[in-house]
Amino acid sequence: MAVHHHLVWDRNVLYSGYTAVLAFFLKFQLPFKAVVAFQSLLSGLAASCLYALTQRVSGRWQAAFLATLAYVAWPDLQAWNFYIHTDALFCSILVIYTYLLLKAHRMRQLLLAMPLLGWLLFLRPNGIVIGVATFFYVLFLLKEHSQIIFRRVVVVASVLFILIVGFSFNRILHNIFSLIAIYQGGSLFGGHPFMAVTSSTPLYIPAPTSPLWQQLVLFIGHNPIYFTKLFVLKFIVFFAQIKPYYSSLHSIAIALFIYPAYILAVRGYRKPTLTQPQRLFFVVLVGLQATIAAATLPDWDNRFIVPLLPSIFLLAAVGFPAGQRER
Taking a C-beta distance cutoff of 8 angstroms, is the pair 265, 309 a contact? Predict the structure, then answer.
């Protein structure tokens, strides 16, 4: 926008929600320290929302305290507040939005959360993950009230999804990094050679003149074992979070803190205090984000999992054993 003096419709449009924030601070000649302060304040508000949502879901203030403590204390999450980058704002707004969405009981309350959803869609390209998770949440809320409306929405949404994907898929591929080059490199850690996936036979590389969607289909179709191995390992590495270039202390902290949180989150996910729509929202949010990361860029600095951590901490707190023996 600064170069062309108008909105350029490429993938950078999906960052315009953050550039608008920066433009506001620059317009009033405020330093970047003010942006950091703003991001930190929003993170504090998000912590309050996480506390309230966890207490609402679990019915226990102890669980709310644990989820909020994990959110505030985990340095890999809070460190992003001190960068001029989309991650901190995206994470904070997502927590606030999730609180407003899941506590809503009427359509009017749901509509109050929609401006934040619009902002999330234009903070980062993966904001679409929030949109999909919200769709399934609202869809299954409808299912609880009316099976007829549920079926109609499913049919209409399926047709619209096929049309949108059909018309826009190749354009989307044009506006992201070259996936074929990323796959060909085989890196699990953003260019780092550690555990890079290799093939025992030469990989089939489609002609660069072919349409991008065709290149993608041909690459996967001709290299199915290689692609599957790369995808599965990237999916595992996404949740593992430990990197070969992290210090031993950092890696140990992840193993001792994050891995038990995963186990507790699975336990919390199965608790009856969560409704079916709430479960679906969390599983779509976490699963789709991980799938996109595994299918595209390696998460070399754990940025892509940061927005998921508050939800994981919430579920882990719900799954944490209560003080009294559960019956």
Answer: no
